[in-house]
Amino acid sequence: MGICLSGDIRGGKQAVGGAQGRPTESHNNGGGGGAHNDAVDFFFRSRGLHALFTQIELSLSASKLRDRDITSKSDPMAVVYAKKREGTLEEIGRTEVIMNSLNPAWIVKISIAYQFEIVQPLVFHVYDVDTKYHNVSVKMLKLNEQDFLGEASCYLSEIVTKKNRTSTLNLHDKRNGVSRNLGTLSVHAEETVASKSAVEISFRCSQLENVDLFSKSDPFLRISRIVESGDSIPICKTEVINNNLNPIWRPITLSMQQYGSKENPLIIDCFDFNTIGNHVLLGKIQKSVADLQKLHLEQSGANFVLPSVHRNHEKVLESQLFVDKCIEKEQYTFLDYISSGFELNFMVAVDFTASNGNPQNPNSLHYIDPSGRLNSYQQAITEVGEVIQFYDSDKRFPAWGFGGKTFNNTVSHCFNLNGIPNGYEVEGVDGIMAAYASALHNVALAGPTLFGPVINMAAQIAGQSVSHHDKSKYFVLLIVTDGVLTDLQETKDALVRASDLPLSILIVGVGGADFTQMEILDADNGRRLESSTGRIATRDIVQFVPMREVHGGRNSAVQGLLEELPGQFLTYVRPRDIKPCNLQVV
Fold first, then answer.
1. Is the dihedral of CA 32, 36, 41, 43 positive or negative?
2. 504-532 CB burial, b ≥16 within 10 A, e <16
3. Which residue, among 425, 397, 427, 401, has the nearest Cα to 414 in the 3D structure?
4. In CA terms, which of 59, 336, 521, 531 is 20 to 30 Å from 156?
5. Beta bridge partner(s), residue 205
């Protein structure tokens, strides 16, 4: 339900924007210059650390970019950085990729905390994303493998103090000493609205014009809000419906942050999708949320219009827009749930397959350094566990191993890490670390690498919570692994089944293996997992983080977890109308 913010490209046919999932792209950096994250904010505030800031959303658009593609136009993506005192750049967020466009208006907003009392230099880089990466999530793109289109910089205060809160910056290329104009980047800032009001809308159209030669039009809607300056800023687009002149789109959810007020005019453009980027306008309508509510109540349609070549004239079309559903609702935040008593229950599963190497060998991924330096497994468990345990009242964590030859000399793909046959729980993160160290002495590394059994075990625990009508628990399974899956389809089947449960799975990949399979499980390419029986996952519950990128300074396992966990949590509770504990009807 709703439009999930998808980071993939996939020909540009996926839906982008809307308030379901993550309406903004933000990477918390724990510092003053970066983005805000509910989970991190709550973590610090519980320790008496209060940041004085105003939450800002940045909307980006560009014009007259360089064309780096030979047979088509560039496929641009923008990356926003906070420039630190020492001159280093810290990434705040990335937009989506817009296909074949030299004048992109990105829908993904960049969230940043504006602090009046400090100077906040921002740097913007624009890249042309190579075609071979068009099925890769934007957050996983390696920027040094993309074509650089230009950069610009300014202070955040420069943007927010402008009359229309928009700065237009010239792009240049310092790397090659090219100072000539490489196009412009416009940055518009808006303060985040602290309202929880949202509206869920279902659109359909009838009698759209057919502009395709050998098939029917492939329509999608783009919704934009008109701001004070008179400009329009795109806030959402539906998915593309192929070969259909009477399309019915999936419901979208718009927050008040996006639509402004019920009376604020919105522009709804209907386009025929073209892969090369020159989408054909099939018609447009200007309506406010209040107008859309009226259309829904009256069960009537509104005619699309097309701008005429003659000024101030519009051609009224036969094609119409209908609103099949328009429901107002409260959208509670992750913080609303957590602060009301919802818990995140931590579980961990550790890879004991032979590919990790003999634990006695210093080159082994399981080698425990006498100096106390943590190996990758210990680092992942510590970093993730220390954050998650904060949200778990009893701090008793199920801990398993898989792929090892256990105490009875048989290979097990889900054994209790502490060696106790009937007790898989350990006390706190220290308990996990002690059980892990002990298991390395008592379990022989074996194989193959199977995820199915531990996912099914975690799903069983989450399912028991649901059957006991305990709606205030959400489970997070950390899987730390070095290897390539042997049971990819069985794992997909387990994940599809688990997608209906209050469960998220974080996979941390250690070592130098090819983790392409993990990218498939982490459905950030917008394509939900499909089981062997053809069932589609109801939501994305997997987040994958390669540890080598953690060591490379690009990310941390904690940030990797927190980046998507709040959104995954909300995709579970919102469609089920589960409210925060203090608002639930007993």
1. negative
2. bbbbbbbbebebebbbbbbbbbbbebebe
3. 401
4. 336
5. 321
Q: 243, 247, 249, 248: which is closest to 218 by C-alpha?
A: 243
**Tens-digit pLDDT profile for residues 405-443:** 987 789 999 999 998 888 889 999 999 999 999 999 999
What H or E segment, with its residue span, contains residue 347? strand 343-351
Query: What is d(CA 546, CA 22) in angstroms, rounded to the nearest whole number?
Result: 22
The alpha carbon of 408 is separated from its chain's Cα centroid by a whole number of angstroms, namely 43
Q: What is the bridge-based pairing of β-strands 219-226 and 232-237?
A: antiparallel
Those residues whose C-beta lies under 8 Å from the C-beta of residue 427, and which sit 6 or more positions away, are 395, 396
Q: Which helix (H) or strand (E) holds 488?
A: helix 488-498
If you search the block for the tokens 């097309």, which residue do you land on? 306
19-37: string of b/e by CB count within 10 Å (b at 16+)?
Answer: bbbbbbbbbbbeebbbbbb
Counted residue by residue, the chain has a size of 586
- Across the strands, what pairs with 152? 124
Two tokens, residue 210: 């057919």
Tokens 């008496």 correspond to 48
How does DSSP classify residue 88? -
Structure tokens at 568: 């995954």
Is residue 308 classed exposed, middle or buried when 0-12, 13-18 and 19+ CB atoms within 10 A define those classes? exposed
Burial tier of 235 (Cβ tally within 10 Å: 0-12, 13-18, 19+): buried
pTM: 0.69
pLDDT digits (tens, 9 = 90+) for 44-82: 555 454 444 678 899 999 999 988 767 778 999 999 999
- Say if residues 475 and 505 touch (Cβ distance below 8 Å): no
What does the angle CA 86 – CA 90 – CA 93 come to, to the nearest 5 degrees?
A: 160
Residue 43: name the closest of 393, 477, 338, 341 by CA: 338
Other C-beta atoms within 10 Å of 329: how many?
Answer: 13
Would the pLDDT of 2 be above 50? no
- Please name which of 531, 525, 526 lies closest in space to residue 498, comparing C-alpha atoms: 531
